[in-house]
Amino acid sequence: MCKWGVALSRKSISFTLNGEKTEIEVEPTLLLVDMLRNRLGLTGTKIGCGEGDCGACTVLLDGKTVNSCLILAMQVEGHEVLTVEGLGTYDKLHPLQSAFIAEGAVQCGFCTPGMLLSAKSLLDENPQPTRQQIAKHISGNLCRCTGYAKIINAIEKVANS
């Protein structure tokens, strides 16, 4: 039921999440960010502005960055979603995660999941970007702690390795 008391029909969707086939029943108004966090327990994807301006909710949909606060869960039917949880694990970090740690590109950590996924998207498309290309690609992800220089350094470090 929605907040006006109208029954909403649920639909079962099937998609690939972090490399694994996933099936879940969702309401037509459920946002992807809410499904990931509240229904699937993947809290690495953050809720920031809720308007697609901050990038905290960035995930990869078929390899492209999207703001999961602007996507309905039903829209991922048949697609592939990658969250920060699918990027690496505690015992096997992705090179970007290692570089962010080594370069001090993580402070409060709120923007980090979205930054990592934006960086992955960039490096998948362009393995050797310039500093300017890196800065432009992550411009949709707001960071209030590190000032971007360390983040750009970390991404550049992976690109140059």
UniProtKB/TrEMBL annotation:
<comment type="pathway">
    <text>Alkaloid degradation; nicotine degradation.</text>
</comment>
<protein>
    <submittedName>
        <fullName>Purine hydroxylase delta subunit apoprotein</fullName>
    </submittedName>
</protein>
<keyword id="KW-0411">Iron-sulfur</keyword>
<dbReference type="InterPro" id="IPR001041">
    <property type="entry name" value="2Fe-2S_ferredoxin-type"/>
</dbReference>
<dbReference type="InterPro" id="IPR002888">
    <property type="entry name" value="2Fe-2S-bd"/>
</dbReference>
<dbReference type="GO" id="GO:0016491">
    <property type="term" value="F:oxidoreductase activity"/>
</dbReference>
<dbReference type="GO" id="GO:0051537">
    <property type="term" value="F:2 iron, 2 sulfur cluster binding"/>
</dbReference>
<dbReference type="Pfam" id="PF00111">
    <property type="entry name" value="Fer2"/>
</dbReference>
<dbReference type="InterPro" id="IPR036884">
    <property type="entry name" value="2Fe-2S-bd_dom_sf"/>
</dbReference>
<dbReference type="InterPro" id="IPR036010">
    <property type="entry name" value="2Fe-2S_ferredoxin-like_sf"/>
</dbReference>
<dbReference type="GO" id="GO:0046872">
    <property type="term" value="F:metal ion binding"/>
</dbReference>
<feature type="domain" description="2Fe-2S ferredoxin-type">
    <location>
        <begin position="11"/>
        <end position="87"/>
    </location>
</feature>
<keyword id="KW-0479">Metal-binding</keyword>
<dbReference type="InterPro" id="IPR006058">
    <property type="entry name" value="2Fe2S_fd_BS"/>
</dbReference>
<keyword id="KW-0560">Oxidoreductase</keyword>
<keyword id="KW-0408">Iron</keyword>
<keyword id="KW-0001">2Fe-2S</keyword>
<dbReference type="InterPro" id="IPR012675">
    <property type="entry name" value="Beta-grasp_dom_sf"/>
</dbReference>
<dbReference type="Pfam" id="PF01799">
    <property type="entry name" value="Fer2_2"/>
</dbReference>
<dbReference type="InterPro" id="IPR051452">
    <property type="entry name" value="Diverse_Oxidoreductases"/>
</dbReference>
